Q: What sequence folds into this?
């Protein structure tokens, strides 16, 4: 029993946790890029762009994550099957990452919008006075300062994202929760397996939240 | 493009599922609030024996995915003979009650944080003034602390209500036919994911959007001064002796 745990199931759970972390990391990167785009569209964009960004946020926030995941996974399968003419099974990892990134972006957009809005106007004006282009002013002056302000909210979202990866188990991706379900079927010890999974999740979220707290302290050095 | 006849066919089934979503949400929020108030008082208590366990509970619940919590209650507890043989087994065997217990315990942790924060926001001077007037602890809570805390908690609690409604979609993973579950069933019958999931999404969206609009109206009504709505939205700041007025 113990040997089985150490050699087989334990290792499987660790692999599941690694998949969970990779889904979260890729979705975080893609979602951050989308989120910054949404945030800047809401501040600097022309009216149609601004309204579409607002509508996107409202819709994604008003609908459960599972619906978004199903829509992308099953909807994607149908779309690709129609396009190619033969049955296509969408990769769970890709569908999961896409769904989580879209959801993440909807929330991150407002965090970046708030953070960019908090950077003093004088900074933009000074950048223009120095002759920096709008693009250079945004990427070299505004965004680096906005990061510090966005960090607390961004950290919260990252932890929510890690927990949301468990939803990808419904489309069959073998991340931590799905792996636990498979093992609990084999061992008939669902409580024990889910308990171990819970501890793994708790370790991951605690470490990440500790990391973000430290990053927050570091980034605030020199500020009152 | 979209086949509207499939959408029309699916609508009654999805609305039936929405009824289940509504029942689940109400019961989860009630259970969550019942547990959250004592938890919040424990979290704000000075004694380590009170705020220690409350803080650990909140930390653990918030560090674990809610879907895992649902699985632990629904699949996990059945592993133990004493649960299967207890009088409570009909409850733990039923996915409906399992979702309510799991998500209710989950909502309790988040709501407790909101309530604890709101209680801390009540100015100390007001509590001291109430005590100076001879009000007992219970009277102070009832007449001073709680009314002010409710106002302070409302914006964050609105958010919790919306999140809970969305979280009930997890019920579909343990065979319940809530709005998401009904949509999944309909998709497996028609294999028209766009039509069905978009309709389900539209129903969720109208529920959450109209509810958050209603709650915001309620917030404005309950706030300190509703003769002037603009002023009332601002944070409640009583004038305290010795504090210079800016």
A:
């Amino acid at each position: 029993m113990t040997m089985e745990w150490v050699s087989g199931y334990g290792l499987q759970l660790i692999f599941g946790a690694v998949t969970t972390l990779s889904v979260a990391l890729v979705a975080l990167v893609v979602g951050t890029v989308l989120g910054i785009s949404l945030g800047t569209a809401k501040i600097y964009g022309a009216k149609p762009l601004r309204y579409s960004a607002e509508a996107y946020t409202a819709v994604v926030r008003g609908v459960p994550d599972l619906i978004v995941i199903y829509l992308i996974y099953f909807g994607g399968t149908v779309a690709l099957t129609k396009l190619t003419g033969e049955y296509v099974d969408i990769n769970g990892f890709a569908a999961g990452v896409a769904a989580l990134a879209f959801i993440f972006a909807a929330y991150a957009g407002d965090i970046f919008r708030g953070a960019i809005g908090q950077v003093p106007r004088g900074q933009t004006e000074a950048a223009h006075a120095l002759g920096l282009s709008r693009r250079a002013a945004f990427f070299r002056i505004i965004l680096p300062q906005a990061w510090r302000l966005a960090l607390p909210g961004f950290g919260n979202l990252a932890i929510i994202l890690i927990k949301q990866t468990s939803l990808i188990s419904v489309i069959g991706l073998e991340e931590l929760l799905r792996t636990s379900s498979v093992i609990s079927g084999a061992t008939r010890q669902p409580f024990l397996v889910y308990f171990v999974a819970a501890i793994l999740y708790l370790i991951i979220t605690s470490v990440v939240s500790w990391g973000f707290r430290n990053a927050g302290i570091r980034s605030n050095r020199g500020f009152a | 493009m979209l086949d509207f006849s499939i959408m029309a066919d699916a609508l009654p089934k999805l609305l039936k599922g929405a009824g289940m979503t509504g029942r689940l949400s109400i019961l989860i929020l009630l259970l969550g609030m019942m547990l959250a108030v004592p938890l919040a008082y424990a979290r704000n208590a000075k004694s380590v024996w009170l705020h220690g366990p409350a803080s650990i509970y909140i930390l653990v619940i918030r560090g674990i995915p809610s879907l895992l919590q649902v699985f632990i209650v629904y699949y996990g507890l059945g592993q133990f003979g004493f649960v299967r043989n207890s009088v409570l087994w009909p409850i733990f065997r039923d996915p409906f009650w399992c979702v309510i217990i799991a998500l209710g315990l989950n909502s309790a942790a988040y709501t407790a944080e909101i309530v604890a924060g709101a209680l801390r926001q009540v100015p100390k001077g007001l509590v001291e003034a109430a005590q100076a007037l001879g009000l007992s602890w219970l009277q102070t809570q009832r007449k001073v602390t709680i009314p002010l805390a409710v106002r302070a908690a409302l914006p964050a609690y609105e958010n919790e209500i919306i999140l809970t409604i969305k979280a009930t979609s997890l019920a579909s993973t343990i065979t319940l036919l809530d709005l998401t579950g009904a949509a999944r069933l309909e998709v497996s019958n028609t294999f028209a994911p766009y039509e069905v999931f978009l309709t389900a999404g539209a129903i969720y969206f109208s529920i959450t959007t109209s509810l958050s609009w209603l709650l915001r109206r309620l917030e404005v009504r309950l706030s300190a001064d509703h003769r002037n709505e603009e002023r009332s939205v601002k944070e409640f700041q009583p004038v305290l002796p010795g504090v210079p007025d800016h």
Summary: The longest helix of chain B spans residues 4-44. Chain B has one domain: 4-227.
